[in-house]
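Team,

Forwarding the record for the chain on the shared tracking sheet. I've put the sequence and predicted structure together so nobody has to dig through attachments.
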Amino acid sequence: MAGGNGERWATFDCYGTLIDWNAGIGRELERLFGPELAGERLLAYHELEPQIQREDPSRSYREVTAVALARLGVPAGAEDALGRSLPGWAPFADVPAALEDVRARGWRLAVLSNTDRDFLDASLERLGVEFELSVVASEIGSYKPARGHWDEFFARTEADRERHVHVGASLFHDIAPAAALGLRTVWINRLGEEPEPQPDLELHTLSGLGESLDSLVA
């Protein structure tokens, strides 16, 4: 897929940026551990998941979630709870209209996701917006913040780096590694965090994203 000829590309993280990842995981942890422990377990899950991905980048995301739940001490036989529930996780309400606006402005869209093909396909179907390309961790043997997703994206599109912007909610998984590669970034700060490193632009939802992207790449 050639991506030259002045095309503008916006790449996106999916879970946490487009799909409400925290709510999806949180509901399952509350079901498994009860409401009094769910918050604590969610914080622990956030720490466990990248550790497990670093330990063995060849693991599928389904396997990563199962290992994480096992380490959290879920009841025997419940390790696949997140894998079973993930296809039903909902998009943030602001996402579909914002993505349609970005497309209408002439941007090409791609997703760079730390997940599996079947999971991402189900989530993109829920979004109902066309993406030209998607790169998933289980097909390249690499998890963000490693640079494998971006290397694969540029290899497949030949996109002009000066006409590309990466959009993500995670400073750790998306903004920091994209910035380290010299790419423009838009941080979707849904949780009211302090930015480190500094993105090129910060939004609190995807509303207004099209205008923001146009301001970075005319």
